[in-house]
Every structure is written in C-alpha cells, then in structure tokens.
Predict the 3D structure of the following.
Amino acid sequence: MNVAVLGAGGWGTALAVLLARSGHRVALWSRRCELAEALLATRENAAYLPGVRLPEGVRPVCTAERAVEGAAFVLVAVPAKGVRAVLAGMPPVGAYVSAVKGVRFAEGRLLRISQIMRRAAPGARVAVLSGPNLALEVARGLPAAAVVASEDADLAAQVQRALGGPTFRVYTSPDVAGVELGGALKNVMALAAGMADGLELGDNAKAALLTRGLREMVRFGTAHGGAVETFYGLSGLGDLMATAMSPLSRNRSAGERFARGATLADLETGRQVVEGVHTTAALHEWAARSGEELPITEAVWRVVYRGDDPRRVLEELMRREPKPE
C-alpha cells in the first residue's frame, strides 16, 4: 500500500524503512527541502539515522500534496510542538497515526497528540503508535514490539498489518489515552533516570526511582482516562525500561547531561528534540493549576527549568514523608 510518514527525523525515517522493507511504498516528508534532496541523493539520513540505507521503496519529498497523495494512512513523527502546524498545512487525509510521544498544555488544559489531531483534522480517523522502540535498533532490523491504539478497530488492524513483520511485532488496543500517556510520561521518568546515572547514585536508587516513577505514571494516566493494565504493557513499563536504560535514549542521555551541569540552553542547541523536557513543562503547568502532586515530575522540572542542583532535589525526594507503598 501507499503510506506517508511526516517527519524525517530518526523515528520517522526508521518507520519509513520498516514499512518499505515490508513492501510498501512510502513517502517520507521533510519540511526542509534540502534534507529531502540529500536523502534522495545519498539514500541515507546521515544527520538523524547514520549507517542505515533507505530502501528503494522510500521516496523523500518536501511538499504536502506529494507526501499524502493516495496514502492509506499517514504516520506523524514530528515533534509534539509542531503537530498542529504540520497538519494544518496538509490536504484532507483519511487517517492519521500518531508516532509522537508527548503532550501539550494549551487553552488551560492538557492535550494529548490524538486530541490535537482531531482538532486539526476533524474528518480524519486517528490512531496512536507507541512502545519500546529505539529508532536505530528498529531501523537495523533488531527485534522489537509496539502497540497501536484506536477507537476504530479497523484502522488499528490496518496499521498492525502494515507495520508488522519478522522483526517488528505489533499489538492492538482500544485504550488510546493509556497508550498515548504511557509513551509521553515515561520520557519524564527517563530524564530522572539519566540524572541518577549522571550523579552515579547506583542501581538501587535508579530502580527505586523508576518504580515510583511508574506509580506516578499509573496514577496520572488512569485519572486521565487510561486503563491501569495499559501502563504495565508495551507503551508503559516496556517503553520506560528501554528509554530509561539505553544509551541510545535521548531523554536518558539528556538527564545525564543535566546532572553534569548542562542547562536547558545547552540542550536546545542540539539537533534532536528531547520530548521529555517539553512534557515536563506541560505536566508542571497542569499540576500548578490543578493542585495535584507529581513529585518526580516536579523534581525534574526544578532541575531543567529552574536550574536547581539535581543532587539536592533527589535527596529531597528521599526525605518526603514516609507512607505505605
């Protein structure tokens, strides 16, 4: 089938490679024509996914009309902050699949990416894709699994068939909120895990931090419509393990940099977006207005946005009032 991927970063390119290896014709859209031209000329995304050759089935483009023409569905893999603007510039599309792991705070409320999509393209069917999927490993053909969630079971099954293959197993779920929030919230916990690594606090501390972080994810996610079991699946616990542990994880690596003295300004000079930083800001804004407690998220926010000493902040987490698990 014809499929479009919006976003020629590491994850968008990996998805295009995965689809093309399964025999699909993939339009890989970049907002920068110079990047699309370089991909076409070299058949490699040297900036975001070095060492992985683009199969012949991948067609780099930089115009919206050429990207989505005839597409059975459109995968969106742009930064969360750019989703609304990108979709506003697209011709009418029948189905969108979000591969974006983030949330936004706007108009006084927290918005998931699928909700932004429905506002930007009210006539389109919507699904979300999430799981422990490090782009480079997926592009190299290493085994991985993911979950696609949609209220439209036929769309979820179509995406499952398109993406599934010998090295990529795809499950389906009706829990859109849970799958989305699991993928977004684990990035904040991965930042915290990276800070623990940067401070060399040891494996005991990191394990405790991630266990309580998962509890924070479950508490927040179920309060916002997700099913508790979803957070113990691929898009919750699974993605948390990969993102908090792997040296390939940009969120974990960013946390380590913060612990060693980097600032937000230092991070923003990089080429790749660290979604956990923006999700942390959105959750902090929500918590400040709602009065709800998100202790680990708040600790990460203090380090990233206020410049507090990460060791002191993590020590304060340890000194919180004792209570039952």
Remarks:
- Residues 178-319 form a domain with the N-(1-d-carboxylethyl)-l-norvaline Dehydrogenase; domain 2 fold (CATH 1.10.1040.10).
- The chain has two domains: 2-174, 178-319.
